[in-house]
Amino acid sequence: MAGRTLPLSKRGFNFETTMWVFTRFTVVAMYGLIIAGLIGGLMMSAKTGANLADIFYWAFFPNKAGNVIGAYIGATILAKLMVSAFVLVVCGHGVHGVLEILDDYFSAPRVRRWSRNFIISYAVVASLIAMYVIWNR
Amino acid sequence: MEVTVKIFRYNPEQDKRGHYETYKVEADENDRVLDVLELIKGHTDGSLAFRRSCAHGVCGSDAMRINGRNHLACKTLIRDVGANITIEPLLGLKVAKDLIVDMDPFFDNYKKMLPYMINDSPLPADGKERLQSPEQRARFDESTKCIMCAACTTSCPSFWASDEYYGPAAIIAAHRFIFDSRDEGASERLQVLSETDGVARCHTAFNCTNACPRDIHITQAIGEVKLAMVTGKLD
User: Fold this and answer.
1) Which of B156, B180, B203, B230 to mutate to test the interface with A (most CBs of A within 10 A)?
2) Which residues of A make CB contacts under 8 Å with B?
3) Which residues of A touch B196 (CB under 8 A)?
4) In terms of domains, do B223 and B112 share one?
5) What are the backbone angles phi and psi of residue A120, rounded to the nearest 5°?
6) Considering A27, B19, B45, B175, which has the largest number of Cβ atoms within 10 A of its Cβ?
7) What is the mean pLDDT of chain B?
């Protein structure tokens, strides 16, 4: 018997579903970026002969002046792309989490609309500021 | 053994708010919590109100909070909950009297799932039944076990926050028909479930799965409904 599959227009694929899928993918993306960052950090640390303290310093205080590895790695395009991707993914994931929690407490459609508009606007502005900081230092 | 039972009491005609009353009864460790409640109602305090019907874990009438967790009183033995028992009504629904809650919001949500077979196609050529393979039947076997006791829905933190959320029991009812190969109403149900108060409100806390007296894997079933929305696959 042929499998039953509903077309996209008939399966209730709306904003809620999109956000649900997005949130799942962003978790996977976060783990991917974290692993890629760790591997990259270890590779670069090996190249520059860093000790464990330097690696941790680079991991948690990237781009600090005076830190050889941080200055070397943090200034590269790849590092900036990695950090940008991480910020955007984390921001998108976090925003949906906050929206979900707010929706639990605000059940009136008008209040929900306002809370969503506010949080999404805030996330967009915060992301833009983060991009400015990452790419202009 | 002597059992101390602390029971939530509320009479809307007399009380402004609920309070607890404590009873001491003699019971066997193999007695059920429902037996203890019957004992109290029959011999100590006839004003105590609670729901019960079949008393054998089939009708789902006597779901209540026993020592902080949702159980069916007729399936919970004294030996499993100890000699000090606290019994409260289900959370998230308005208390009508003592251990009886107003189930209207729960059943309103259930009705929104269109919990009946929808199939407008003509009958097969032989004019008899719409056939289904054992594999197709097994696809929704779990969700047919639901007895609508509300233990899952009233253990869900999303439902505590807002009873607008359809809740696990309603989603299970939808699951039972969405994945039934004979049904043609999956699209309508998924449209309803995709609303803001639909499956998006499930935060996979797993309280429902832990509370279910029928051991239905409710969180998994909700996940399957979410996946059906994304992939459109119903088999």
Assistant:
1) B230
2) 1, 3-8, 10-14, 16-17, 19-21, 100, 103-105, 107, 109, 112
3) 16, 103, 109, 112
4) yes
5) -65, -40
6) B175
7) 95
The domain in which residue B54 lies consists of 2-101
Q: Are residues B25 and B132 in the same domain?
A: no
Q: Which residues of B touch A110 (CB under 8 A)?
A: none
Q: Is B190 on the interface with A (CB under 8 A)?
A: yes
- Cα dist from A8 to A18, A19, B76, whole Å: 12, 16, 45
Q: Is the pLDDT of residue B78 over 60?
A: yes
Domain match, B157 and B121 both: yes
Other Cβ atoms less than 10 A from the Cβ of B115: the count is 16
**Does B228 contact A at CB distance below 8 Å?**
yes
In total, how many domains does chain B have? Answer: 2
Residue B101: strand, helix, or coil: strand
- For B203-227, write each residue's pLDDT tens digit: 899 999 999 999 999 999 999 999 9
**Does B198 lie at the interface with A, CB-CB under 8 angstroms?**
yes
What CATH number is given to the structural domain containing B21?
Answer: 3.10.20.30
ipTM, two decimals: 0.76
Q: Tell whether the torsion through CA atoms of B120, B123, B125 and B129 is positive or negative.
A: positive
Q: Which two tokens stand for residue B108?
A: 């309103």
CB atoms within 10 A of CB B215: 9
pTM of the model: 0.85
- Best probe of the B interface among A1, A9, A10, A11, by most B CBs < 10 A, is A11
- Give all strands (DSSP E) within chain B, no chain letters: 2-9, 19-26, 63-66, 69-72, 84-88, 95-97, 100-101
* Per-residue pLDDT tens over the stretch A41-80: 788 778 878 777 777 766 666 555 555 555 666 667 877 8
